[in-house]
Amino acid sequence: MCNIHLFNMKIKNKILAFGLVLISISANSQNKTFQKDEFKQWAQTPPMGWNSWDCYGPTVEEHEVKANADYMAKNLKKFGWEYVVVDIRWFVENDKAGGYNQTDPRYVIDQYGRYLPAVNRFPSAKDGQGFKPLADYIHKKDLKFGIHIMRGIPKKAVEDKLPIKAANGVTADQIYTTALQCEWLKDNYTIVADKPGAQEYYNSIFELYAQWGVDFIKIDDLSRPYHEGEINLIRNAIDKCGRKIVLSTSPGETPIEAAPHVTTHANMWRMVDDVWDTWPHITHLMDVAQKWYPYIAPGTWPDCDMIPLGRISVRGERGEDRMTRLTKDEQYTLITFFNIFKSPLFFGGDLPSNDAFTLSLLTNKNVVKMHNESTAVKQLFQKDGQIAVTSRNAKDGSIYLALFNISDTASQNVSVNLSDLGISGEADVLNIWTNEKSKTTSTTIAADLKPHSSVLYQIKSKK
Fold this sequence. Notes:
The protein has 463 residues and is an alpha/beta fold. The protein has twelve helices and 21 strands. The protein is elongated and about 75 Å long.
């Protein structure tokens, strides 16, 4: 009996020692500080996922997030779609579509001035668990979890003079200013970046988000105007939190003058304001995008905004519950441009409501391959209602070419010289969307395109 007792004690001691090692490893990972530019490794290809804004505005609920995650895991994960993002005002109990700046918002906030999920909308957040149970649900499906916040510090935290965690007695009312407050949503005040406690506040919220298991954060009202000081605080806080969190700055228009800073501090940044399901939104995006081609690079991506396809505005901000108003030609044009431009792809519609056509736009293997693997993206021209964009795949020698007719009334023949693509002699041509194959028979490649339509080719030289 004595030998058995000693044996059991040894086993228990080994288990205890192993548990302490695991705790130590976990603690060290939380305390890890990432090095400058290491964050670019977290998004070597443009992030792909779903965002709740276009379909649910500020009102999304936990069961809807889970339904979209379930759909993604079943139908889209194998094509690279992986982020599930809860958009704006998840911390307001009584929000409604179009209800910004209501006179009686019921905020949920902790003792350190940090927003918490509204339990009436996210039941698993009860007992102070925050978003961790929902993040765990999504992670178990081999997906990643994201949230949206506004820059700055909550007005309620300022009014109540709540303490900033680990800031040596600094309170929220000591680090804010009313200057440059967001014009369209008044929940927060601007943080004065050089005030004692400013960095500590951002550190505290990202410490919380890391504990929840957040993999992606979209931060609003950073880009127009460009808030360099707060972006520095945010980047520092992410790098100190011990978790790889992709940073998306929003909304546009991000000034091109800020390109040297944003490319070294964010994984993606918006080029324009919200893109909705109207043709002028698409053409405006294509116009603004012209200046951002040189900044498309692994880890840092100019962002075209969410994809307003499928069923949108279920409880959204722009119009009634509907399937996208874009025609099929316009949908092909939008998704082709987003992909060849290598924009991050965040679908805005309610995924479980997808029809077969919408699903086909998200699951074309050759389009996904182009989006992930292509390099040297450049616009050949944008003139007279015609656009040509090209890129190449160094892995298999493919050259990609997207041609667009963005005119409103006339069909056009849009053509490109093969020499401008670095091709001489015969080449095989694949129409990626229709899977039709052909061969080049002249020195140009061309397509007759109806107004608002496009074509996407994969070209392989015979040489």
